[in-house]
Prior knowledge:
Elements: H1 2-11, H2 15-33, H3 51-77, H4 81-108, H5 132-141, H6 144-172, H7 176-201
Helix pairs in contact: 3-4, 3-5, 3-6, 4-7, 5-6, 6-7
Amino acid sequence: xxxxxxxxxxxxxxxxxxxxxxxxxxxxxxxxxxxxxxxxxxxxxxxxxxxxxxxxxxxxxxxxxxxxxxxxxxxxxxxxxxxxxxxxxxxxxxxxxxxxxxxxxxxxxxxxxxxxxxxxxxxxxxxxxxxxxxxxxxxxxxxxxxxxxxxxxxxxxxxxxxxxxxxxxxxxxxxxxxxxxxxxxxxxxxxxxxxxxxxxxxx
Length: 203
């Protein structure tokens, strides 16, 4: 019986190395195939990219920063709780996306901001022909329903600009993570545009 027991004990240890050797392969597979969460930049960035991906990440970062400025002001000055809720939703979605895109640019060895003057006012250049500075100045002067109306009108136009930029990335981009984010932006912001249009009609 002692011999049988020893044989049984000797048969168990080889199982551990087999489990250990399979982990790296499984980890590599899941890293490549599972979508990265928006709340946390991915630890592994796909190195494959082209100029369109770089431009998308740089310009959308600036564009999102413009939306954050407007949303932070709405949190303080909006009269409607629904408008404040929209602003909070925008801020909650776009801040992690900024961090995500900046992590790509860093991994690609690209500057966070585009060279020259290309991105200086892209944060708001598509808001009915007004610059980010013009819109922020108008919002800072607004109060009550006037503020809510101006915020919603400007943010709808701002979102439409983001959708157009994301569609351009889908057409010209190459990086899988950037393409995935572009589609997410289109899906989310089209829904938000519809919500803001309804709020605007009911002010």
